[in-house]
Every structure is written in C-alpha cells, then in structure tokens.
Fold:
Amino acid sequence: MNTMQADNLVPKNSSSCAMNPLNLEEFKRQGYMVIDFIANYYQNIEKHPVLSQVEPGYLKELLPKSAPFSPEPIETILHDIQNHIIPGITHWQSPHYFGYFPSSGSIAGFLGEMLGTGFNVVGFNWMASPAATELEGIVMEWLGEMLTLPKSFLFAGNGGGVLQGTTCEAILCTLVAARDQMLSQVGKDNIGKLVVYGSNQTHSALQKAAQVAGILKKNFRAIETTESTSFALSPDSLRSAICSDIEAGLVPLFLCATIGTTATTAVDPLRPLCDVANRYGLWVHVDAAYAGSACICPEFQHFLDGVEGAHSFSLNAHKWFFTTLDCCCLWLKDPKALTKSLATNPEFIMNNHASNSEQVVEYKDWQIALSRRFRSMKLWLVLRSYGVDNLRSFLRSHVKMAQIFEELVVSDKRFQVVVPRNFAMVCFRALPLAMGNKVYENGMGNKVYENGNKVYENGMGNNVYENGMAQKITDDQHDQERSNQLNQELLKSINASGHVYMTHAVVGGLYIIRFAVGATLTEDRHVFTAWKVVQEHLDAIIGI
Amino acid sequence: MNTMQADNLVPKNSSSCAMNPLNLEEFKRQGYMVIDFIANYYQNIEKHPVLSQVEPGYLKELLPKSAPFSPEPIETILHDIQNHIIPGITHWQSPHYFGYFPSSGSIAGFLGEMLGTGFNVVGFNWMASPAATELEGIVMEWLGEMLTLPKSFLFAGNGGGVLQGTTCEAILCTLVAARDQMLSQVGKDNIGKLVVYGSNQTHSALQKAAQVAGILKKNFRAIETTESTSFALSPDSLRSAICSDIEAGLVPLFLCATIGTTATTAVDPLRPLCDVANRYGLWVHVDAAYAGSACICPEFQHFLDGVEGAHSFSLNAHKWFFTTLDCCCLWLKDPKALTKSLATNPEFIMNNHASNSEQVVEYKDWQIALSRRFRSMKLWLVLRSYGVDNLRSFLRSHVKMAQIFEELVVSDKRFQVVVPRNFAMVCFRALPLAMGNKVYENGMGNKVYENGNKVYENGMGNNVYENGMAQKITDDQHDQERSNQLNQELLKSINASGHVYMTHAVVGGLYIIRFAVGATLTEDRHVFTAWKVVQEHLDAIIGI
Structure:
C-alpha cells in the first residue's frame, strides 16, 4: 500500500503539523492519501473476515495509554488504522455483508459527506447557512414525490420534511409532539395515563422514545403478532388493546406502524390501522426505516396504501438509499405540532431579519438538537449522481439477488423460507430434520438421517422432507427447541468463518437467519457464495 | 477552477454513473476532484461575504422542481454547488468569521470524518464494529486526562465517556437518567413535581431537554444572573430557588452549570454550586460546550475546580477542538444511571457472545439513538495529528487574538468591553456617547459629539469619555435603549458588508456584540481588519 511505504519518509517527530490545521497543501496531500486509503480498503475488503474476530479489549493493548504530546504524521496514523482498526471493524461495506439491514455506501453519499464536512456549517437556523436549510427543504420535496407520498406530507401541501439523524430521533420528536398535543387537551398532569402502541415486531426505537418522553413503562404496548399475519400488526388486535386501555381510564396516544419490520420485513397494514387509530384520536407514525426506500419503485408503492391516514412518516436514507450514516428522512403533515413542542427561541440566534419575518423554516425547532450538519448535501448528491431511474435499478438488483437466494433456499429441502419475502431480505432456517439422527436420536432415528443426506446429495428421497415440516414454521415445542439450537449453531459457525455475515431474529419463538441484500458492492456471485457457505456449514454440523 | 472547466467533457446525459455506486476508479477520480474543490473553496473563502446575502427562497428558483430521472455528472453538480450553494452559505470556516462560537475545522477532523464515512459502520453495539466502540472508550480516556477530569469520570474510575452528537443530546440523556433515578425514589406519578435549574444564561438546550423529558414548563427555572457576578449563576440564588420549590412541595431534580456561557462565556462557580445541589440531592451536569476545550491548557483548568461534585460533564469538540460537526464529548460518574434509562435489549442485536459476557461497553444504551457513527475516528485523528502541545498552542493563539481585539476595543474610548474576557471571545459595545448629537440631541448636544470625534481622531478629549459611562454597563433606561439601538444598527451594518461576521447577545438588558475568535484560518491580520471594519461602520453611522 502506497501510504504505508511512505512511512519512512516522514520522521515520527515531524512537526509539520504545527502549521495551520487547514494548510491547503497539506489538506490536498493528505486528502488524496485518504482517498487512496479508502479505495484500497474497498479493493481489498473481501480479504477481511466480514465479522470482526477480535476479542473484547483488544485495542487497549495496541494503543498508547494517553494522547501524544507531539504531532504524528498521517502516514503513521494510517498505518495504525490498517493494522489496528481495520481488524476490529465488522465490514458493513463488504459484498459478503448480509447482516441487520444494509448500510449502503456510495460515491455520491461519500462525496456529499465530504462537502458538508468541508463547509462545516452549523445550520441551526436559516441565517446560519441559508443553503443548508433550503436544500434540505428541496430534496425532501423531491424524495417525497419520488415515494408518491400524499401532498399533505410535503411543504407544497402545508406539511414538510426534515432530515434527522436516525429513526430513534424521528420517533422521539413525533411522540413528544403528540404527547404535548394530547396533554394540552387532557391536562398536563395526565402524562401517566398516556399509552403508546406498537407490535412486538416494532423497532426498539419506539420503546426508547417512550422511555425518554416520560411515558410509563406499564403504558407501553407491544401487541402480539402471529404467523397468521406474517407478523404484521392486526388492526383488530390494535382496536382491542385501545378499547381495553380506554376502559381502564387510560389515554391512547401514539401508534407506530412499520413498513418492513426489523426481524422479517413484515408490513403493517396502514389503511385499516390508521382507520382504527384515527377513530380513537391517536397520532400515527409510519416507520419505514429500511423498506421505505423501495417505495421509489412503482411496484412497491402499494405498501404505502393508506399512509394518508398517518401523521408522520420516516425512512433511513442511510440504510438502503446509498446515503452514508446518518440520514433519516421524516415527513409530517403538521410541522407546527412538532415545533410547538421543540421550539426554543434564544435571543442569540433568533433576533434576525429572516427569523423575524417567519418566511423561513427554522429546522432547529424540528429536532432534538440545536446544531445541524449539512446532511441534505449527501442526499442531494445521491439523487443527482444516480437519478431516479438508476436508483430504482440499484434497489431492484438487490431484490433480484434476494430472490436468487430465496430460490436457492427453496431448492434445498433441508431449509425453509420462514416468512414471505417482501423486499431484499430472506428469512430462512435449517429444518431440524436436517440434523438427522443427531436430532432424532429418540425419534425417527438414523433412517431419516440417511435419507436426508441422500436427498441433498442426489436429489432422491423427497418424501422424507415433504412429509416433514417444510410447510409450517410453528413446530411443536420439542422440535422448535431443536430447530433453534440448530440454527443458532449454524449461524455462529457461518459468521465465525468470516466468509459472510448474517444476523438472526426470533419470531413466534423461532430462531431464524436473516439474509439482507443491500451492501453496495454485492453482486450475484456473492449471493451464490453465501449460499454455498450456508450449505457447507450445515453439512459440517450434521456431520456429512 | 479546474473542475468547472471539465464541464464540457462529460455529456450531461452520461450514463457513467449507472455502474456500481462504489466503482473504485470513479471513487478516486471524483474523490480527488472534491478534495480539490474544497481546497479551492478554502483558498478563495475570503472572497465571499461571510454572512450569506441571499434572500429567503432563493434556491428554489435555481433548482429543478424534481429529482432528475437520469444521472448527472459530478462536474455539473460541483458547478451548481459553486454557483448556487456557496452563495447561500454563511462561511463558518472563513478567517473573518467571529460569530456564535467557532466551528473549527481541521485537516485531521476532516480526514477522520472521511475515514469514518468510508468504513460506514453502524456501531450500535460492540460486535457491530468492535474498533468503533473501543476507540471511543480510549479517546475519551485520553481527552478526559488531558482535561484533568477527576478519575471518577473515567472508565479507569468506574465512570466513563461517550461521544454524542450535540450538547442537546448529552443534556437530554443525563436529564432522563436523573429523572428516572428520582422517580424511582419519589414515585413514578410525580414527574409533574420535578424541577430543573439553570440560569438565564444557560443554553436553550436545557430548556429543550426539559420539554422533551416531560418536565413541566412551570417547573423550569432560569435563575436570574446579574452584572455583579459577570452573569454567572450565584449559589445563593440557586439555594433560595431550591428552598422555595421544596416549600412549595416540588422536587428539585437537575442543575445545569455552565463553563463559558453562550452570551458572554461566563463561568458558573462549580464548587459552591455543586455543594448546594448535592445538599438537596440534585444531579449536576456541567455544560462546557465551548470553553471545555480550553481546559487542556493548565492555565484554564482552574475553571473546572469543583467539577468532582458534578455527575456529568460535556464539551463540544466540534466547536473549538478542530473536530468537525458533530462531536459532543460526555463523561459521567455513573454510566449505569444512564443505561438504566436508555437501554433496550432487542433480540436481534443482543444475543451475541460479547454482549452476553457483559465485558464490553454497549454505547447504544448511552444515547438517544440506536445507530452510531464512527465519531471517535475524527477525535483520534485530531489528537494524534496535532498532539497535546500543538492543540494547546492553537487554542492559546485564539486567546491571544481575542486579547489583541480586546486591547483594540479598550484603546478606542467610543467602545467598551462589557464583561471580563475569559477565553477567546470579547463582548463589547459602542457607547451611546459615540453617537454624539444624534443621540444626545436633547442632552449634552453637539459639544460632546465634537469632543467625541476628536478623542477618536487625535487622542484628545479623554475626559469626556472618562466622565461618561465607560465604567458601568447598566446605563439608565433611556441610555440603554439608545445603546441597544446603536449597537444593533452597528452590527447589522458590519454583517451586511460581508467583510466580517459577528453575532450578538443581550445580557442585563444590554445588546452586546460578541467577537468570538476560533475559526481555524483566522490570523492576527484578520483581527485587525475586523476591528477596522467595526470602527469604519461606527464612523459611518455617526456620520463622520
């Protein structure tokens, strides 16, 4: 690596850094060097185990006990990053990364981050950098239209969009707005009566937001979902939870519905849920953190049917939209409800012509923090550099790769696709039958095991599996424990290999493996490799 | 500009971007281009008016109504940034920027941001990227030691540090921790009794955090400060506010003390404040957002005297520590109080060896959001690239420049330094006498005016000013209104010129101009220029 070879050229105690910290020659020299370093990282990314294999505390052993007194040259620092940091990274940008949800990087997202960082403005209000505020408003209109969000969520329809850091912040902000709106009706002393609803598949962001906003833990409802709805929230369950809370003298406040749950990408049915929620006066937030991006493609937009009944909608452009962390897009129908709760008007930033004129959006009042990064820059670069057409193609290519993987799973009868695939993630498991006599030592025994292997090896013996449990996921208790143990072991083995990285979920008591396509560098061949790894590790576990 | 000239070389409808969004050749080509673009921006930054002069809505007129269907080349995008975005930027990186507090960029901070963005890991828990968690723990120990924070705030003393986005988040997190700790003692239904304390100089972050955390507005105390304490919070005032709340049946909860207030960089006396607060069981958070950085220099560390009595301490490395936005450093004595309030343990990220072993820090439970950027990278690069010695020198050079400006203000008797300068910010105003007969048309009249000018022009006539109001800042009501009007007009005129940018504050009813040194590119000559601009604009206003 070039940057490494330069090590010897600059003495360790070089005081070259004592010059101005924005010296332009150094800025360019070191800037190019880091561009090369990162390009090199991407080029060689497949050489690293995807899941970092270091042990807790590893870095403390490698770094000095305190900050250096004298400057160190960039060459030394990059050398340490190569040798000490990279081994401790779980490589979210690796084409072999299929864990959690993607964190899809891109050139445009990266450059946007560079430009925003280069300007390094603190755009809390319009005047602090008009372009930051205005560009944000504009790209949020662009993206809202790409998603076919109802006009009521756009500035053009008296709603509006804002960039937050993460969904956690977006949910907290909207929950606080809903809370204060409700308390102004029912009395400020009734915070202890407010109830927040999600399903047991809703992201933990809702629970955290509720905790922060002062909602009592006993008033947090994680409504049960089942396989019968593919783990989507049932409007009937919501209604009955709301009704029993009302009977108990509580005040239903807030529903978080999800388009693409974390565990299985389940889609909560927006229209009937909003109908129920609106009947009882709840604020509905739609969390489309992962799957929202797909809705720029016409074929996915039906998942948003009924969103017009919601109050707010968010997606994370930093997940599956090529915009580096962090970049959560939040739209609201009634931004005033938000600013009423979050506005502060300190003299030092308020008394200026633009703010006084009320002609401008003051985004500081749309979020938790005062200070704001220039996040719209990266989203703007992504939209312009790729264009709507390519962005759709990129997302579709991920969906296509997930379909390929799904077909591979289906074709091997030792495995099962656990829930319908909605987007670019496949939830699957190895069936306990695959473990043969190890599993069924006091059940069907060796015969099944031997048949099982034959099925896999020569395509014979289908009956064993067809009579097995491939069509249902709710095994009896005994089977389920075996299945969970098997899949836990399988995933651990796969990830320890470093060849690919996948993560798990537990739904309906069942431990499943999630295969989420979306890392930008992933191609078809990586999907085939991943499947081969899965099969090989199962082979090893069952002792083929 | 090179990047601009390339415009014609790449056809607008080039589909070169349809390739993989992380194509390495393009990554390097475009990466270098953006490095050049930003270097060029810094090189020419003095050519732009510091405060953007655009009008609300300007950008909407310049950009298309919707996102492009087809990709656009980087050259076109950079061209638009140059022509449409830069004019809308208030140039926080300009050497002529003296507004608010600095947002001091640096090569190291920028490169750290690039590297973190390049890896683009989502380090919510240890396993999601061990290096991100471990490096954060390490640099927070380094920086804590540089500040001579008591060991009880460091991991080595069972406390610990975490990087948050902004002070708003840091205060919200600690307030929520304090709230829940108190509610577990006094009963969860008593949230309406909890009282939060700051001074009328405390940053609005406290008010916002209190609003979000569900503290009633009527229970938020912004305790009056006066000139007699240079606008620092008086322990006696705190005690009396606490006592009267207790008498009223309320529950004192939280005090936010400030090292370096936003308006005037006042320093609240930590030791006596903590004594009072601890006697009544309050959580004390110390907000050293701006001035904390200075405490890496021995000569400023006395401002931290008594911090051992506080529960948490934060500073913004993105203000005056060369680490680009956002990077708030928070240390706590009892991280468990924080994680008790903020922890969520969803199956999908928790069930792994490291988390289960409890050997590792899980930073997701130390903050509002789940997802976490690799912020420690930039702080690490800043510490290593410059070293403790240089970092102190940089900060001292800013303090020295503020001293120069202070001396210039003092040397012109038409002006006054309003409060003692503690760090690198000077608070000053033009005295109403300077306006001569315009101000004193029915007072002392022309004679004073003429003397006034002579003082300025030839160094004579001192008596007029010495007998004037240079020694007190609390003018009578009539004078104060005149003074405020004059200084408001003066600042507006200065900023409209685009030559420099300063902002204002109002303390004790007095409108003052803040001159905050800290933009990385600022040198002595920029300070002299700034002072010349101030004088010229006053000359113009008073009609010389």
In short: The longest strand of chain A covers residues 251-258. The first helix of chain A runs from residue 2 to 5.
